[in-house]
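From the methods appendix. Each design record in this collection lists the tokenized structure first, followed by the designed amino acid sequence. Records were kept in a plain field format so they could be parsed without special tools. The example shown here is representative of the layout used throughout.

RECORD:
FOLD TOKENS (276 positions):
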């Protein structure tokens, strides 16, 4: 069913978790042609330095403007792309698009890191770690201008391709963030093994921060632990000023959320940068 969710005035196509088989097949088929049909877009959401209030990073978030169903959420189509092996091609496209944008912002004089999601299925044996680094060479872009966002579970993934790619990124100088931190199996010793730079506290802990003493205790513990390990903390899903104020008081480093801006197209992001 298409539902008006108010995101950037688009109508979002949403589905139950258990997609009807017929709809799934149709969507998967449409997704195969989405790149060629130029229906994919990369939006950017600002990440704010809580000390200075400045926009210091931009998370690249994929959008699918479907021909007839409107805007489809990545929460719906990324799992489908993973399931049928389309995520590598789509993920490579996102990477190149976002890296080119990072190059453009750099050329315009902005000191802005671009953060890119990479799901476990994208850490297969095709050596995309190397092709990504090679593309940065081509662009003449410093790897440290980019952050790769991985999931907590990836740190426990035993595949040699995972270790190789993560260490390859780290050695090249790319930064690494653990996304949705606190929702999976926490592999604390691996944070240092891979020299992780950022923990992103999952939105579910931020949502009730001002009402729930338990959530405050968890957020506080994550921030203290991260800092002791030499990592910086990004709070996800910050929607209200009281949440932001609590996070500043707790010593959180960065925040991202609707309080500042939803994910937006490049033009709108540039307007946010101009406003400062
Ligand atoms: P994520 O990486 O954790 O991204 C953050 C999600 O939280 C985004 O959802 C963003 O729109 C949403 N969000 C940000 N601030 C707020 C807030 O204040 N309140 C609420 N309620 N939500 C907020 P989005 O864009 O729908 O993406 C969902 C997930 O899809 C992402 O979660 C990520 O796991 C995946 N994804 C998106 N783009 C890509 C991509 O290019 N590659 C891969 N592998 N995964 C992607
Ligand atoms: Mg992310
Ligand atoms: Mg590092
Ligand atoms: Mg997240």
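DESIGN:
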């Amino acid at each position: 069913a298409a539902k008006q969710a108010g995101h950037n005035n688009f109508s979002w196509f949403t589905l139950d978790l258990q997609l009807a088989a017929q709809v799934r097949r149709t969507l998967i088929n449409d997704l195969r042609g989405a790149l060629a049909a130029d229906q994919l877009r990369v939006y950017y959401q600002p990440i704010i330095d809580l000390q200075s209030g400045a926009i210091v990073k931009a998370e690249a978030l994929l959008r699918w403007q479907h021909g007839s169903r409107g805007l489809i959420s990545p929460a719906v189509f990324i799992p489908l792309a993973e399931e049928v092996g389309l995520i590598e091609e789509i993920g490579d496209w996102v990477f190149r698009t976002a890296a080119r944008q990072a190059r453009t912002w750099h050329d315009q004089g902005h000191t802005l890191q671009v953060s890119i999601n990479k799901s476990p299925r994208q850490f297969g044996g095709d050596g995309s770690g190397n092709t990504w680094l090679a593309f940065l060479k081509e662009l003449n872009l410093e790897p440290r201008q980019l952050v790769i966002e991985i999931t907590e579970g990836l740190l426990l993934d035993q595949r040699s391709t995972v270790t190789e790619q993560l260490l390859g990124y780290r050695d090249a100088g790319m930064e690494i963030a653990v996304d949705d931190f606190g929702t999976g199996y926490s592999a604390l010793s691996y944070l240092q093994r891979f020299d992780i730079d950022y923990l992103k506290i999952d939105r579910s802990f931020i949502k009730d921060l001002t009402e729930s003493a338990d959530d405050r205790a968890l957020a506080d513990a994550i921030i203290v632990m991260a800092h002791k390990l030499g990592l910086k903390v990004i709070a996800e899903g910050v929607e209200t000023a009281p949440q932001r104020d609590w996070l500043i008081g707790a010593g959180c480093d960065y925040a991202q959320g609707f309080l500042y801006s939803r994910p937006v197209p490049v033009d709108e992001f540039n307007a946010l940068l101009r406003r400062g």
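APPENDIX NOTE: The pocket of magnesium ion (ligand 2) is lined by residues 59, 117, 149, 179 (CB under 6 Å).
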